[in-house]
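SAMPLE LOG
Freezer: B-3
Tube label: C17
Construct: single chain, 408 aa
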Amino acid sequence: MEGGNSPNLQLQQLPLATAAVSVQPHTDSFSYKENLIGALLAIFGHLVISIALNLQKYSHIRLAGSKDPRAYFKTKTWWCGLFLLVLGELGVFASYAFAPLSLIVPLSAVSVIASAIIGIIFIKEKWKPKDFLRRYVLSFVGCGLAIVGTYLLITFGPNSHEKMTGENITRHLVSWPFLLYMLVEIILFCLLLYFYKEKNANYIVVILLLVALLGSMTVVTVKAVAGMIVVSIQGNLQLDYPIFYIMLVCMIATAIFQATFLAQASQLYDSSQIASIGYILSTTMAITAGATFYLDFTGEDILHICMFALGCLIAFLGVFLITRNRKKTVPFEPYISMDAMPGMQNMHDKGIAVQPDLKASFSYGALENNDSMPEIYTPATLPIVQEQHGSKGISAPPYRVLEHSKKE
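STRUCTURE (predicted):
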């Protein structure tokens, strides 16, 4: 009986085992499909954002000499750039709902690549033929390296996918790896903020580290909000969970403070330095946050992790080379910069400019041109009174001119 039943049992178990094996490749192919959708959305979004920013830059350049400071509001080019900017941000926002966080964040290198190419071709930056090799070869090499790094990122990116439900996000939020990561990040952020505000440590690395720490929390909350919205659209409503609104508030708050520190950095340093250093620091912190919160690299083999890290390093080098030879704009200053004078108050210490107001002439103080000033503002002249000798009872004026005869 047992021998006769064993073949039947084996025949009955074979289809079940085959079905169980066939599910796994289907899941893998579907997850790789989600990775591809998220990567394409991110690339599309960053490309459209670069085009939008260059359109708005072109509009500002054309209206640079206009007396109306808001004349660009009346141009179709600026509004077209604004529409494309919103479209690109929506594309990047939607990409976080499909692909892992550690895959989407490094793809912002596409924006740097597109801006470099558009700046050379469409903005028509002036260059001499003899300076072409010196100025642009490294930029094109950087574009090539960034493209290679982007390909490696997409090919060997993490393949972890999880439904962004309220229960899953809450479970990740109270996990001990993320709580430990948050503790370290809060301590580091407070120390950097203390040195930046109290010790006037206005170094670019300090400011951009503050931006990167805030940005890591921004992308974590963006993925949670975007994922819960997509799950709700698919039929499983997640908007009634309190964690959704907590993540939404954290996303908005960290994005605002991040923009504030970026604005302060742009006043102190060149935009090319901010783009390269900011990309490296923000990407590193965001990947660390994604690996800690969403466990992006769980189950990945060593080869995929090493190739992904290699793709990040190549993309970092490409972005650095792209921004390395960018021409720095030196603003015209018709006065002596007090920042360069030792012992003088720095104009960025308290956010108050210590330079005098620029008037009609390019001089100030004792060198100021008062030819066109009204008579009421002209310096007063002192009357010249001749001293009268021998007169008594008359008080002498404060200023006297003594006339001496030739005999004296």
